[in-house]
Amino acid sequence: MKRKDTCIYLDYAATTPLDARVFSAMQPYLTIHFGNPGSVHVFGQEALAAIDKSREIIARCLQVEFNEIIFTGSATEANNLAIQGVLEYWMQYKRKSNNIVPRIITTELEHDSVREVCRGLEKKGVEIVYLPLHDNGTVKLEALSEALNDRTILVSVMYANNEIGVIEPVQKVSEIVQRFRNSKSDGIYPLLHTDAVQALQFLDCKPHELGVDLMTLSSHKIYGPKGVGALYAKNQNNNEKNIAPIIYGGGQEWGMRSGTENTSLIVGFAHAFALLEELKQQETIRITELRDYFLKRLQKVFGKSVVLNGSLQNRIPNNLNIAFLNHDATDLIVALDINGVAASYGSACSSRAWKPSPVLNALGLQLKYIRSSIRFSLGRMTKRSDINRTITILKKITSHVRK
């Protein structure tokens, strides 16, 4: 196995390294300012002030209200809070009859932390509608219009996919949802949620411009620490958020997420967020150029034996999902790792054992394509020399690794 410091890391969609500047900002809250933010003494007040400042930074970057940011332990938890929280609130306060079966509309393209929540709710009697997709992975908007009905309480469509990088037309989804919502007497449901975890690094994620009520964010995908995420939850009438908590206790985070706040992680998240705003434009251009160079080199070297999964034009900059025909993805990933290149199948949150990707399956790809597919994702430390070396290694291992 190669020494890790000489390896090429091409799995930035799974996680990113902690930026040294972020780590420096976090350190005092691990040692000196260690107080519980719920305590009234000076130690607690220092911690609370740091959390308030962090919330202000993120709210300002997103151009939303301070109390619309809810810190969570992960993006997975934020997705759970968005979906289960909307359902719980609706059942407690808005359900008019025990015979009404709520409907949630989503897609097969979602991250496991959305898809599996929906699978679980389906078993409890909630109706889940999975929208069909175009060949490039974007949702069929006409199907959304047809799926909306008076029982629909939530639509959840991710902004950018974690496996194939496809960018969904969230603004157009919002227009359809709002038009339907405005035609109803209550003017509240359905709410619109988007998982913007992969989108945040490259796309404009301001909720008001997107027209979403709920948005999930993650720290460790933007060079911040693991173990912290956030849910943007729009203030409705009288500052109601139309979601109920799914974790109960001391009532932290506006009563939406109980548990002692992890001050250092929250500070790190906000610092990473602020740095991202500074670097986003230049990094988007640089990484797009690198990705396109990578794809052209792959096509030149391997010809028609490599196939890009999903649209190139409608894609976040750092993602390439490639099918290496006549090769097994598991064998290729192991061989790449042995030779010093880190890549992946797709979502790092699913089982380590290979199983057919629901995302690639939803695109209608044949199993031979799915079994051959690898995700390469680029980041701040990726250089052109890394791409060239990866191509050289791929040429070497594909001459030995066959199905």
UniProtKB/TrEMBL annotation:
<comment type="similarity">
    <text>Belongs to the class-V pyridoxal-phosphate-dependent aminotransferase family. NifS/IscS subfamily.</text>
</comment>
<dbReference type="GO" id="GO:0031071">
    <property type="term" value="F:cysteine desulfurase activity"/>
</dbReference>
<dbReference type="GO" id="GO:0051536">
    <property type="term" value="F:iron-sulfur cluster binding"/>
</dbReference>
<dbReference type="InterPro" id="IPR020578">
    <property type="entry name" value="Aminotrans_V_PyrdxlP_BS"/>
</dbReference>
<keyword id="KW-0808">Transferase</keyword>
<keyword id="KW-0411">Iron-sulfur</keyword>
<dbReference type="InterPro" id="IPR015422">
    <property type="entry name" value="PyrdxlP-dep_Trfase_small"/>
</dbReference>
<protein>
    <recommendedName>
        <fullName>cysteine desulfurase</fullName>
        <ecNumber>2.8.1.7</ecNumber>
    </recommendedName>
</protein>
<dbReference type="Pfam" id="PF00266">
    <property type="entry name" value="Aminotran_5"/>
</dbReference>
<keyword id="KW-0479">Metal-binding</keyword>
<keyword id="KW-0408">Iron</keyword>
<keyword id="KW-0663">Pyridoxal phosphate</keyword>
<dbReference type="InterPro" id="IPR015421">
    <property type="entry name" value="PyrdxlP-dep_Trfase_major"/>
</dbReference>
<dbReference type="GO" id="GO:0046872">
    <property type="term" value="F:metal ion binding"/>
</dbReference>
<feature type="domain" description="Aminotransferase class V">
    <location>
        <begin position="8"/>
        <end position="389"/>
    </location>
</feature>
<dbReference type="InterPro" id="IPR016454">
    <property type="entry name" value="Cysteine_dSase"/>
</dbReference>
<dbReference type="InterPro" id="IPR015424">
    <property type="entry name" value="PyrdxlP-dep_Trfase"/>
</dbReference>
<dbReference type="InterPro" id="IPR000192">
    <property type="entry name" value="Aminotrans_V_dom"/>
</dbReference>
